[in-house]
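Re-run with default settings, no changes from the original entry. Doing this only to confirm the output is reproducible before filing.
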Amino acid sequence: MQRRLFLASTIASTFTFVLARPSIAATFEVTLTEEEWRARLTEAQFAVLREADTERAGSSPLDTEHRKGTFYCAGCDLALYSSTAKYDSGTGWPSFYEPLANAVQTQADDGFFGSRTEVHCRRCGGHLGHVFDDGPEPTGKRYCMNGVAMVFRPS
């Protein structure tokens, strides 16, 4: 009986978490159907941008990108980060201490691993990564982004 109770409460908690996560998809300038997003994005981009997946640490060439330029949203091509705000956080993901003005939005991401702050593109709502309070000056922030969610263009 204990095992059934544990299993039932675990399933209920999981569904509560999934259903309680706020949906923000309808509030963006660029809104496409799932089919349109799948046609526009690679499988990996879709998993991260549209399903809030996380790429494997160290898998993105953008983590070691050091040229001057701009990082754009792979979903809608909005300029997100300047290379001047990029730094090596040692985490295996491209990290920045600040986004460009009016480029990203954040929301609480409460899950099984605690509370974090999700970062998404303000124009299409694509999941980019998370922001943490352990970055360098001048902001003290670490915008830890999925490289697959971005495209880099050198200046």
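The radius of gyration is 17 Å. Strands lie at 69-73, 79-82, 86-87, 95-96, 104-111, 114-121, 127-132, 142-145, 150-154.
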